[in-house]
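re: ur question from yesterday

yeah so i grabbed the chain u mentioned. its 166 aa long if i counted rite. heres the sequnce exactly as i have it in my notes:
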Amino acid sequence: MRLNQCLLAIAPCLLLLPACEESPKQAGSGDDGGGPTAGAANQDAEAGKLLSASGSTAEARDWLAADPKKHVLWKGDRASIARLVDDLYEAGATKVSAVEISKESTFELAATFVCTLPIEREARRKLFEVHNRFWKSYLSDDDPEDVNEFLRFDQGQKYLVFDFDL
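ran it thru and got these structure tokens back, copy pasting raw so excuse formatting
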């Protein structure tokens, strides 16, 4: 009789298991030849649109190196973002771009950067590490649950997006 009572007690919990999502750390890495996960593919599609917008993209280092009065960040600390771009290249990024650059009358404004990821597994690992370490540091005063929304894991995507329009 006790076994039946235990089974009845846990049955509702078992019904919820199929609704649980796979943990990002357990998600496919894209290294298995199966391509990116659906979520990663959607992110890649959005990043691809940002990168293909004519006249509103620039290489990040070059854009950040220009006169800060003419190349303005919407939000974000210029030194931290420049250091991030350097760290991304050092870790193996193929390219880092400033995207959605808004050209105003006397200045350009950017809030989003896209990192193009390499194929090599070790470089990808380093880039996700740089990405997550950056957001944990940059948002250190925020609620940890909010910070977790910014963390990314390798799911076979082509790009990492850094959106400072917080």
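noticed a couple things. The chain has a mean pLDDT of 81. also Residues 121-138 form the longest helix (18 residues).
anyway ttyl
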